[in-house]
Automatic annotation (TrEMBL):
Its EC number is 3.4.19.12. Residues 167-275 form the UBP-type domain. The keyword Metal-binding applies. This is Ubiquitin carboxyl-terminal hydrolase. Belongs to the peptidase C19 family. Keywords: Hydrolase, Metal-binding, Protease, Repeat, Thiol protease, Ubl conjugation pathway, Zinc, Zinc-finger. It catalyses: Thiol-dependent hydrolysis of ester, thioester, amide, peptide and isopeptide bonds formed by the C-terminal Gly of ubiquitin (a 76-residue protein attached to proteins as an intracellular targeting signal). It comes from Saccoglossus kowalevskii (Acorn worm). PROSITE patterns: UBA, USP_1, USP_2, USP_3, ZF_UBP. The keyword Zinc-finger applies. InterPro entries: Papain-like_cys_pep_sf, Peptidase_C19_UCH, Ub_carboxyl-term_hydrolase, UBA, UBA-like_sf, Ubiquitinyl_hydrolase, UBP13_Znf-UBP_var, USP.
Amino acid sequence: MAAVEVLHAFQDSIKVPQGGEKIFKDECCFSFDSPESENGLYICMKTFLGFGKDHVLRHFNKTGNSIYLHLKTIKKLKPKTEAKEDPPKKKPTRLAIGVEGGFDVEDEEEFEYEEQNSVVILPDFASIPLPNAALPEKVQSCIAGILSAQSASKNEEIEAWDGETRIISKYADNLQQLDNGKKVPPKGWKCEMCDKTENLWLNLTDGSVLCGRRYYDGTGGNNHALDQYEVTKYPLAVKLGTITPRGADIYSYDEEDMVEDPHLAKHLAHFGINMIAMEKTDKTMTELEIDLNSQLKAEWDTIQEAGKKLVPLFGAGYTGMQNLGNSCYLNSVIQVLFSTPDFINRYANGCELIFNQTPDDPSRDFNTQIAKLGAGLLSGVYSKKPSSDGDADVDKLQEGITPRMFKSLVGRGHPEFATNRQQDAQEFFLHLISLIERNSRGAQNPCDCFKYQVEERIQCVQSGQVRYKKRDDYLLALPIPMEAATNKDEVAAFQVKKKEYEEKKMVLKNDEIVRPRIPLSACLDAFSAPEIVDDFYSSALQAKSIASKITKLATFPDCLVIQLKKFTLSEDWTPKKLDISVDVTDELDLSLLRGKGLQSNEKELPEGDGPPQLEPEIDEGVVNQLVDMGFNREGCRKAVYHTNNQGSEAAMQWVFEHMADADFAVPLQIGGAKKSSQPAVNEEGVMMITGMGFTRDQAIKALNSTNNNVERAVDWIFSHADELESVAMETEAPGPQYRDGNGKYKLVAFISHMGTSTACGHYVCHILKEGRWVIYNDRKVAVSENPPKNLGYLYFYQRV
């Protein structure tokens, strides 16, 4: 009772949540302790910040706040019941990983939870178990507010990524509907322009019934509904066959997304459709995508090494990561980064780095969270072998870490990584590299191990003169020459067999699948092969010419990251992922790829890339075609511009050659076009950028190039280092440093993707540790029995 009485003296240091406050009750601010951790989580009842036991005293000593709500949750396996057989697993209904209705990662139904909460008074950790009716009213109100409030991390979770949480269309309230007397029957539909009877869409303005787009695998419609929109601009269409009393699939062509229409019943009734009486007869877009992923089960099983009793691993460096709303792309990239010597050396003492951050450091938040990540992964604190009796699956019980705050921070302000949709691991790798670069000025930068220079040799064919250009890069993107397959006869025979199986609705077994086998050496040869540059302006000739470009490496990094460009287009221009097997070698010698610079027998082209050019008209129709295929709009505008409006085929080829560029999504800037005036200088933005170590001139140029967007301006600086050489420097800044050495490497990690596109599916990584391959599949960490090196997407090589 003494402890309860003490609370009366501290009531002024307690705050009752009023709604809207951020309450950090899922995860410690400085570690990955949670209510499920051994010592639970302490919530300050004034600031609502959460702390693990190792850090709560630091907060007390700094603030003097003494009263904390201690949350402790005990997770237990449910008692096994005598069941004759396991119930069948439910079919996925959402494009999600590890959430209700999504693809299974681990079965949370096996567990039950017991809460043991209390109020704790520091510094003596005097504890008052809850519930307790004797607590002061203000204390009870504070506790009730904390327990009932959504946590800060829950409030930041966005569920729009899985295709179910959709915005209300801006056209819904005032949708134009023509009084053309058109009535649509309840069934028996057919496209008005072809013979398609499936994948039909009803336009809600004119009542036309037309077929939809082709799917990723080439099936589907003939694009007649889209063609009609290009003519009429009538925005909303509903997929016939998905209409039920609960709703339907509705697409907005103008908003380029699936949307909601709260007035759907009225809009359907306009064309004689009784929504209440309709029954579902066709698959929704989500179901179609799920089917496509389910058909790739063989690939999933191989990459995840399904069906094998893998030996689980625990301890430092073997810590799993919870999949947060399809964050497997983040998990895989982070696991590989923190297995490299530079990241281990930088962040092994993560806690020390956290508390050495100065309060006025603009990089404090980011550096705190990445140091916290290092401590969580490398300490082994969250990867302890659980005590288990009998044959319990201990590999499902690793606590692992849940990087909610880190995910929220690195995605803040980004149009894609701020969502919970699946993303491209390659794009996230470059995004994270940029963030670390930005926040490491004046300090050790662990990403230096990936940094290298690319050398581009351009030779004017007519004059024979050359120009050498160098640029920074962190990732070697390799094309995949399908013509180099070494098993073409076997692939041809397999395609015949596959078609027979599809006609009989039979499923191929894993060992029956034959993929084109491409040697990695062929990919490297394709990368360094001469490339013809049409419409090249030769400064030697002062006229247009043809040039030959050869790309090589000017320096070799300590760790070389290779991306296989698996995502391409089929013959009918539908996006697809190449289902291939690449013969990846454990040892790699890139010595022949080293650039040599200007040779004594070569004559350099005079300075100048050509006369100033006015910005041409950009064919927005071609841009929209490319955007409809899933590519970034700014990148598509660049593609149309750089191919001089020569059509979708030329623009698409440019997209695939440049989509890995760091500035692919940066708005188009025409170097030769003269602007009438520069935008006013954003002095606040200049101060923020110069505070990170850049000069004022660099900050102004970057802001002018990105419409005064500070976030994009900093990214622009890192991706346009060569352009900044012409900017007058206020102070002499040290030039970029490159590590260089021999070109011999050893494979140490790879990241694999499962699914039809980078917008869906799952990522898994394999890492070579202590002489053995280890699979990291979110929270499951185990010895790999058969690492699928041939099916990787990103490969990490370490210099030997």
